[in-house]
User: What shape does this take?
Amino acid sequence: MTDSISIPKQMEQVESRVAEVLSLAKSLGADGAEVSMSKQQGLSVSTRLGEVETVEFTNDGALGITVYQQGRKGSASTADLSDGALKQAVQAAVNIAKYTSVDEFSGLADKELLSMSPIDLDLYHPKELSTDEAIAIAKTCENAALSSDQRITNSDGATLACFEGFKVYGNSHGQLVGYPSSRHSLSCVAIASEGEDMQRDYDYTINRDFALLAQAEKVGINAANEALSRLHARKLPTGKVPVMFRADIANTFFGHFIAAISGGNLYRQSSFLLDALGQPIFPEFLTIKERPHIKKALASSAFDSEGVATVDRDIVKDGVLESFLLTSYSARKLGMQTTGHAGGIHNWQVSSTGGDFNQMLKQLGTGLLVTELMGQGVNVVNGDYSRGAAGFWVENGEIAYPVSEVTIAGNLANMFKQIVAVGNDIDMKGSIRTGSLLLDEMQVAGN
Amino acid sequence: MNNVERELLAESQLDKSFLNETLQGIYQRNIDFADLYFQASSHESWLLEDGVVKEGSYNIERGVGVRAISGEKTGFAYSDDISPVAITKAADAAKGIANSGNSATVHAFKTDKHALIYQSINPIDSLTQEQKITMLHEVEAHARQQDQRVKQVIVSLSGVFEKILVAASDGTYATDIRPLVRLNCSVLVESNGKRERGSAGGGARTDYSYFFEAENNKARYLAYAEEAVRQALVNIVAIESPAGAMPVVLGSGWPGVLLHEAVGHGLEGDFNRKGSSAFSGKIGQQVTSKHCTIVDDGTIANRRGSLNIDDEGTPAQYNVLIEKGILKGYMQDKHNAALMGVNPTGNGRRESYAHLPMPRMTNTYMLAGEHQPEDIIKSVKKGIYAPHFAGGQVDITSGKFVFTSAEAYLIENGEITSPVKGATLIGSGPEAMQKVSMVGNDLALDAGVGVCGKDGQSVPVGVGQPTLKVDEMTVGGTQ
Assistant: This one.
């Protein structure tokens, strides 16, 4: 059910509507306004046990407006993009701004920081794919999982999704920018069973360019192998052991770090890293570079959600925290300048200490390799960390048996300093590119 | 014609006969079931932070989803444009799931009358903007009055007014108006250089007057402020939590998130049709200790998880899932019920018109047992008492689940002693529930704050339970 008009064409039409909405806001008395509009359309098909399960035609759009009136702020959004609904949204935002408080820190981003003519980051690679072609790819993927081992007895299916869309942002500083983008993914969930034990696991591939997705068979086989490897997992005795986070989940570790250095938590005094700027918080070998302008990358963006130009920066250099992650608002609250992080981070690269996955296991020696984390047991205010985990027990650098139903606990401030190695087995699927992480010791709870 | 039909159909030049024709059109293919789901919702939210009403927003959502089912296959398309052209286009896309061939007939629409579980009111209009702002400030002031160590207060208020209409090929034609309100207070306390947050709130399917009503002789909006401060002050003196397997006593009310994760998700019909749940194929078997009777009940007046009808037009029900330990039945939507040869149970829910319905929980809780809560504590020599939790998560296939305590204490020789830091508790659903050895007589439901996520879709839910003891669970502390 994709719109027959092309995405770049739709984007042009939307740019003029955004301009209209901005002038409407002005005519209703707003002294500042910003409007963002996004649209995404595409096809998602899933197959299960060799048959089509769902075919979904997605088509989502939304417009959000924020108005400022003498230091007061009001917001509204609508998923209904008819003229009437847009007018209603602007009116609603203006009405709300009558009741919110004057807040000296609120307002548009400073004009000189805005990205007025953003560079093209090559994010738009639409794929013309018929429903039948999409189904065939999903079937190939799932079939590879199902036929890889007799113990793959069931499946939660394979899903192929191709989306394309755009984002347009404009504000009363005269900025009007946008870019089209695409995102394609293929995933598979395999279920392995033997005796009474049943385990699920998955694999996926995602890219802006369809041609760069991993092979369908490979995704299916990986999903199957992951599920199989979990069969007959054991608990561990409670105790303190070295812990290694496999590359594909090591990003969660830096996810907590992101929360702790985000402006919102900092000005609310709700972070364990309040006074950490310029301080060593990681070991000296660790550097985190942010590179927002990598062509085709998933977390690339020339500007943040306030229109602020993004720039290359080192977040951590030689273990020292070099930058917080600020929006205009949180920056003003802290007496600093925005870092272009409204809406999140842009492509992080965590430096490696050089070893590959197997060398990391050798360095781990005897301890726990974590491949799955469960729950949200992280307290950013004080850094306390306690999460459910599954993975493998490693003895003398070799995987011995799967482990499940254990927890790992510690405090993030200590855990950051306890990193002893970062692998070169870098996971490229997300916005944080890191290898496996080895920590010298954590508390494991089991039997 | 009711108000919902007027807004969702008549204003867009649609009528019942057009809906019937659209379904007929879908049935030109080899289709077993098709439905149209119309939705219009408005949602407001307000945020006060340290004396400043910082944010206010108003969101409008409107659209129609068309679903066509053939055997196990589902075709789905939707549009934010409620118009004859857009609906026909979505219907054509959805029916592409099946080959041509005309299998069945579209039934004539019929509408059943049901008593309302909540009223058809618009909460957003139930207070003036000035009254909403005043309430936010009063919550903040009350929180600060509790203790000088309160350094920061955030209060948020939200209200949703949603109208839905479902028309299906099985003759279903139903509308619902769903109000939902929520108030939350979060505080930061600071003492001796340590900082800690506490948070409390509640909500219901009614209007904002709910927050001024008294519960235990205290207006709810003030009680939330007191509870947030109390929790933060408990946690600021909390010591390291123990690590390892030990007895755990869960408090009444919100700790029912245990049931939601350890049992609830595993009893959703889709996972069991597919044989991917740890509870698959176990109807009639003992799956928990005999002390447990667990229900999913969408019919409790004004509760956050309640529904007059589910998103497929099936009236909400009181469903016994587990009776004295024996698995009685699963939660079903129409699709999975039909494939499993059982009746739908009023659990077909979707986040919006742009999402497919799935079997989902409503209010899930355990019925009261016979023990005094004090006696349950007294029975534990060394363990944990956890009266408050943050969220949880489950792997329905292996049955492993976690949930994280937000307030917990040591139990030493039958007495509650020191507060301990938040820790994740982990277990296997079927095993942990066999270890429930004592159930209290103090059934309570949560305050109306639950949000459940599944396959990327969020829906409001409720949980509840009496105080109960699990003989052994793994507690993820640091000591």
Observations:
- The CA atoms of residues 65 and 182 of chain B lie 27 Å apart.
- Chain B has a mean pLDDT of 96.
- Chain B touches chain A through 80 residues (CB under 8 Å).
- The radius of gyration of chain B is 24 Å.
